[in-house]
Amino acid sequence: MRRPVSRMRPLKKIACTSLLVAVVIVVLCELTGNKWQYRMAVDIHYRMESIPYGQHDYEWRTTVLNGSMYRWKESVVRQLTKKDCKCEKEESSLRSLLNWSSVTELETAFNAAERHEVKQRREKEYQHFQQRMKTSADALLIARANSPLEYPIQGVEVRPLKSIVIPGLSLQAKYWRRYEVNVTAALGTFDVAAEVDEVTVEGAGQMHLSLSSAQVDNLNRQLQFVTYTNTIFNPNTADTVLLKTAGHQAAFTIKIRHPVIPKLYNVKSQSGYNVSALVTVATKTFLRYDKLRELISSIRRFYPTVTIVIADDSSNPQKIEGPFIEQYFMPYRKGWFAGRNLAVSQVQTKYLLWVDDDFIFASDTKLEKMVEILEKTTLDMVGGSVREVTQYSTTFQHTMSVEQGGKDGDCLTVRKGFYHEVEGFPNCVVADAIVNFFMARTNKVQQVGFDPLIARQGHLEFFIDGLGLLHVGSCSDIKVDHASKIVMPWTRQSESDRLYKGFRYIQPVEEDGRLQEKLLYFKNRLKCMKSK
Amino acid sequence: MRRPVSRMRPLKKIACTSLLVAVVIVVLCELTGNKWQYRMAVDIHYRMESIPYGQHDYEWRTTVLNGSMYRWKESVVRQLTKKDCKCEKEESSLRSLLNWSSVTELETAFNAAERHEVKQRREKEYQHFQQRMKTSADALLIARANSPLEYPIQGVEVRPLKSIVIPGLSLQAKYWRRYEVNVTAALGTFDVAAEVDEVTVEGAGQMHLSLSSAQVDNLNRQLQFVTYTNTIFNPNTADTVLLKTAGHQAAFTIKIRHPVIPKLYNVKSQSGYNVSALVTVATKTFLRYDKLRELISSIRRFYPTVTIVIADDSSNPQKIEGPFIEQYFMPYRKGWFAGRNLAVSQVQTKYLLWVDDDFIFASDTKLEKMVEILEKTTLDMVGGSVREVTQYSTTFQHTMSVEQGGKDGDCLTVRKGFYHEVEGFPNCVVADAIVNFFMARTNKVQQVGFDPLIARQGHLEFFIDGLGLLHVGSCSDIKVDHASKIVMPWTRQSESDRLYKGFRYIQPVEEDGRLQEKLLYFKNRLKCMKSK
Fold first, then answer.
1. Backbone φ, ψ for residue A2 (5° rounding)
2. Residue B138 in 3-state DSSP?
3. At what angle do helices B289-302 and B495-505 cross, to 10 degrees?
4. Which member of B171, B345, B422 has the closest CB to residue A341?
5. Secondary structure letter of residue B269 according to DSSP
6. Cβ(A353)–Cβ(A442) under 8 Å?
7. What are φ and ψ of residue B249, in 5° steps?
8. pLDDT of residue A102
9. CB contacts, 8 Å: A326 with chain B
10. Closest to B326 measured CA to CA, from B363, B352, B365
11. For a tag on chain A, would you pick the N or C end, based on fewer CB atoms within 10 A?
């Protein structure tokens, strides 16, 4: 009678141990947050092959040149966006004859010896930039005619490692012996949320799914249940789904990304706008404390409680005391844009107002108007106009355009003027570049940033960096005074003024005279800048 | 004989005057940069009607519930992304039972009286955010089956006020008496770059173009020449083009935008990586100068020439002297994130390395490794691991996901773990949140920013703000030491330590204890945060 018992014991042991092991595994999984399920490596290296230029541009001329019976309409052809912009100065126009237009060849800022190497490095950096920015959702796709396939062409999006039902799939065919649809993806798998009778589903949970049925209605019902699950996550990518049926093929993209988390400002609403709660005044000073004090007292006359942020890189900084004033001390001569970047980085309100330290608020410096247009429209930034002692005031409204120039870089054209007026704001227009007196969404300005390499003088550079990111407006009726730059014979120049001018307008030996051009060439990948 | 002469004189006068006038007009046009041609107002107000939630999500359940012959596959249905995330704590899971998971209801951070008003304001701000972000290119479009129309479904883009040829247009039909195609747009006009024989073109230069012919080949040739010119510019919008022919209709979008200008860094290449040319070390200090000095000397042991940027908001700041050291002085107790923002705003190199002021470099603090992975992959940021005196070191690898929650806000879930390993870098993975020791592309960190409202403690907040913007990696084999927080009985705590702890861990009366939760609720528009 012992035998069976003895046979039982080891069995029990095994049972217990395996139970124990199971428990341990479960606990481990829980502990590690199920890491194990993602144990796989993904290649996110920059690819070596370069992205062809204007890859998204259909080579239409070549496709039509064979064949006859047509005449070019030169007036239209001339207007077409080119892929090979030139840097020549346009001739025969009154503007160029009167020298109102100019072209700067940026490559020449580098000495001939280094140009080739610099250009190659720029090209490599640009390829990397492209690969970080572009996804297959940017590529050109054509919907073929007379395809029995119905499918979504835009607006399909999935969260990292999540699942969605693919909308709008169907097969519109008649009188086939058997109806079959195949879908293929690269960064995720397919499945069905429900199973329909008389439909054969192969490849559920895989990157290739095959559906077939003798009844097209059943197949279409089944197609409505097809799900896509992202399995390989790379931020900001897209999967291209291939859709096939007898003799026909279609492709569409599914965007794979996190939602961009909003950054909203919690400001109690009230009748009118609470400027102090919505706006911070930001400025940068260097030596000119007399000017700065003038500015501050002029601000206080109209806005006693608005916060003023001051970035200061003077040698022997003076403390500016007072309520709602924040002064930041930087290393000596850190520079103009570095200071602007610092000031902007410290703003806690929804909007910031940029002023130079030699501006003076007047009765028509109406910040409420700027707040109103920013609160009511989609603009990110709105400028005013700066009034000189001569009473002449400028808004510096400009538009910019970039034409493709291939490997040599693109061409930037800057024009006086604007795009259009802003409905409901008679004195306001939309432009790309404006004057140095503007109110803007704080996080948009922080996103663009002021390039700290620009030390002494710089203005347009910020708007070039902001092109494609900032939605810019300009209102001619919101004004600020500019402390005179014109020194009359009888007005004696202050000590600080003389010092300041020395630093600002006389270029130090260590500084690169053509720095700005080099930045436009390398950083912004331009080959020339035209102004018209 | 006088009469004719006398009749001639006034004529001459008229001729001369009109000639003069003409010249003046030309000059004026040139001067004004042809402003006149854009004289029109565009409505860029925020629209009143709110954007429906999940508008891009196809209501598939409703479309299929009528009809029969199918069974839900619950295992799949459970995985589907929901539009109405719940904040309940999941039951019955080991993790929740053992309290490894938690749910924070964020609305409760506000007192009951104000909740309603706060929520309404948040909703309004969110609608505005949506309207700034979204374009018609995000809406769902379906390509209909068996349409004779061929057209581009993605990848068509035009620059503000510029012209392109629309790629891929054709009509694939047979045996029609007359072939006709109509195109309609809202933000631009159509024209043809060439005219084809025996094709009637109506509406050239207008928002509606009609092409017709008796020969389909001629019509298709003509379709290859159709151009689109953007006439109404709003940054970051898209025009929806309607395409019609007998009994069929299709729609596709043309994106209207400036290119985003690249911001490339010009760093001379060399064998290996020049850390000092590529990286700036950024840190924030408050009172703990002994710790800071330890950090700096440990950095100098390995990287004697790397620039170190220090943001300092101490009460009686001490000057930290030395080569390649930049110290910035802020108003007293400006705070932790404000200081990080300042330091980051002053970095001039391609990458920045974030370190806390109580870190200490060791022989395995290999910045070259971090540079290598950033240079070779599409990552924006890569973290290391922080080693405590106990020799235990942490990478703080987490993933995050956001589920839609409708008007109440979305649900954020934070999980321990990562997405996948990085091919070619065995100890590196991709995640959404990492430890406080990381190297990153400078302009990406500046774009996300550190919310200056977070004064004393904060970490995850930065990565939440960065979700959808940052491509984050983490390498466990790149380590930095953490000056001990564990005070042994025999080690006497330094004066500065005691002061520091007082400020950091004891909450001042004026501070809002639930500030972080309020920010998540309002700024990031979340209703709850779950950790698993």
1. -80, -35
2. helix
3. 110
4. B345
5. -
6. no
7. -150, 145
8. 85
9. 330-331, 334
10. B352
11. N
DSSP string, A7-43: HHHHHHHHHHHHHHHHHHHHHHHHHTTTGGGG--EE-
How many Cα atoms occupy the beta-carbon half-sphere of A319 within 13 Å? 6
In this structure, are residues B274 and B371 in contact, taking their beta carbons and an 8 Å threshold? Answer: no
**DSSP bridge partners of B80:** A163
Compare CB distances from B378 to A132, A196, A348 and report the shortest one's residue: A132
Task: For residue B72, report the phi and psi dihedrals to the nearest 5 degrees.
Answer: -60, 145
Phi-psi region of A245 (alpha: psi -120 to 50; beta: other; left: phi over 0): beta
- In b/e form, how buried is each residue of B261-280, taking b as 16+ CB within 10 angstroms? bbbbbbbeeeeebbbebbbb
For A205-209, A452-456, B370-374, which range has the lowest pLDDT when averaged over its residues?
Answer: A452-456
Q: How far apart are CA A355 and CA A310, in angstroms?
A: 10
Percent of chain B that is helix, strand, coil (3-state, to 5): 30, 30, 40
Output the CA–CA distances (angstroms, integers) from residue A246 to A11, A166, A212, B357, in the order listed.
57, 21, 11, 65
Q: How many CA atoms lie within 13 A of A449 on its CB side?
A: 23
Distance from CA of A289 to the nearest CA of B (A): 18
Residue with token string 């479009």: B141
Cβ within 8 Å, pair B432-A258: yes
Per-residue pLDDT for A117 more than 80? yes
Whether residues A192 and B27 touch (CB distance < 8 A) is answered with no
Q: Is A417 on the interface with B (CB under 8 A)?
A: yes
The chain B residue lying nearest A430, using CA atoms, is: B234
Chain B residues in contact with A154 by the CB 8 A cut-off are 137-141, 153-154, 253
Q: Which amino acid is at B456?
A: R
Q: Which of A324, A161, A305, A138 is nearest to A231 (CA)?
A: A161
Question: Closest by alpha carbon to A424, among B140, B62, B435, B41?
Answer: B41
Q: Between β-strands B307-312 and B170-171, what pairing exists: parallel, antiparallel or unpaired?
A: unpaired
Does residue A291 belong to the interface with chain B, where contact is any CB pair within 8 Å? no
Chain A residues with beta carbon closer than 8 angstroms to that of B532: 33
Contact A460, A414 (CB under 8 A): yes
Chain B contact set for A419 (CB, 8 A): 38, 42, 160-161, 233
Q: Nearest CB to A328: which of B142, B156, B330? A: B330
What's the pLDDT at A390? 87
Using the CB atoms, write b or e for B359-378: b if 16+ within 10 Å. Answer: bbbeeebbbebbbbbbbebb
Q: Does an H or E element contain A323, and which? A: none
- Model pLDDT for residues B474-515, shown as the tens digit of each residue: 999 999 999 866 555 565 666 666 666 666 666 665 667 788
A-contacting residues of B 308-367, CB under 8 Å? 326-331, 334, 338, 341-342, 344-348
- Following DSSP, what letter does each residue of B150-171 receive, concatenated? EEEEE--EE-TT-EEEPTT-EE
Q: What is the ipTM of this complex?
A: 0.86
Assess whether pLDDT exceeds 70 at residue A61. no
Amino acid in position B523 = K
Neighbour-count burial for A283-301, b at 16+ CB within 10 Å, e otherwise: bbbbbbbebbebbbebbbe
Cβ distance B139 to A154 less than 8 Å, yes or no, reads: yes
- The Cα A324–Cα A280 span in angstroms is 10
